[in-house]
Amino acid sequence: MRRAKEDIRPSGKRISIKDVARKAGVSISTVSRVLNKSGSVSKSSRIRVEEAIRELRFLPSSVARALARGKTNAIGLIIPRYEGIFYSYYALEVIKGIGAMCEALNFDLLLHITDSRSFINLSSVAGIIFADIIGNRHQLDFAIKQRIPVVVINNFLQDVEVSCIAIDNKKAAYEAVRYLIDLGHRRIAHITGDLVTQAASERLEGYRWALAERNIPQEEKYIIKADYSRGSARSGIETLLDLDTPPTAVFIASDSMALEAMNVIYERGMSVPKDISIIGFDDNPSGLYGKVALTTVRQPLAAMAQESVKELRRILTEGPAGFKKIRLPAELIIRDSCRPLRMG
């Protein structure tokens, strides 16, 4: 008969995952796998862990605090409001990806679209995913101060002790513009997203990086500051086409803006890519069904969304030991909206 393990429950102290591991005679990672129902755990180890959890009446720290405050098993998804948010492919994909993973992991999802002045009620959630930080840094700081488990996506925060998962926007933009340069283009314009977002500012940096690397002059007239909306894309491409020396190619910070720019080009009796080459950003499926299939940058939005829920679950289960800071690579998808220029 297996010897009864010593009752190591600390008097007057909250039980931790370490206490469960010690009582069960297994590693902390084994306890974590049992709690998360993931990975390979032997039947005997699983039984010992489950017995220890019952005997110690263990609850993961953040979940215990949530239940003590009457919270449900809910995650809050906070999306900062910006121009174009309600027809943003990014926002829809993030909501879909996080929602699907929450369902798979048995979390409830509470969606909050906020501006910088909004008050966020944290009393009903166990943890929060911030889908970017745009003018609402104080909301993140408040959540951290309240010791609410937090994960930030689409913004790489180096100066905050918080897990974050972002896209490598700078390198992705660099590769898109370098592709145009390799096709022989030198007059390359850029229509930006809203530069209050880290994603848009990094895409502008990547554009400048590619031109500088090839010693191509950076002319400010070829940089149109937009805000992700179709209206700003329309006015931006009109400005570029009216220049005395219009660009031969345009890198645009989102597919929805790129598609609107293409509409303007067609309205003027011009064509893509014969008269001007276009690259977008997002890999929105709508880019496949126009007159010309749009060359674009595919963001791993589903992976970013799903990883954020997994990371938040890890923090809820194990505590915030070791923050993860991840940049996910994007991929240039070459279709039909760009053409090579003859050299010389």
Write the CATH architecture name of the largest domain: 3-Layer(aba) Sandwich
Q: Helix tally?
A: 11
CATH topology title of the largest domain = Rossmann fold
Distance from N terminus to C terminus (CA atoms, Å) equals 87 Å
- Trace the largest sheet across and list its strands: 2-1-3-4-5-11
- Name the CATH superfamily assignment of the largest domain: Response regulator
Q: What's the CATH class of the largest domain, please?
A: Alpha Beta
What's the gist of this structure?
The chain contains eleven helices and twelve strands. It has helices at residues 17-24, 28-36, 43-56, 61-68, 89-104, 137-145, 169-182, 198-213, 230-241, 255-267, 301-318; strands at residues 74-80, 108-114, 127-131, 150-153, 163-167, 188-191, 223-224, 249-252, 277-279, 296-298, 325-328, 331-333.
Tell me about this structure:
40% of the residues lie in helices and 15% in strands. The chain has a 6-stranded parallel beta sheet, with helices on both faces. Strands 7-6-8-9 form a 4-stranded parallel beta sheet. Strands 10-12 form a two-stranded antiparallel ribbon. The protein folds into 3 domains: 58 residues, Orthogonal Bundle (434 Repressor (Amino-terminal Domain)), CATH 1.10.260.40; 131 residues, Rossmann fold (3-Layer(aba) Sandwich); 130 residues, Response regulator (Rossmann fold), CATH 3.40.50. The protein is α/β, with parallel strands linked by helices and 344 residues long. The N terminus is likely disordered. The protein contains 11 helices and 12 strands. It is elongated and about 80 Å long. The relative contact order is 0.13.
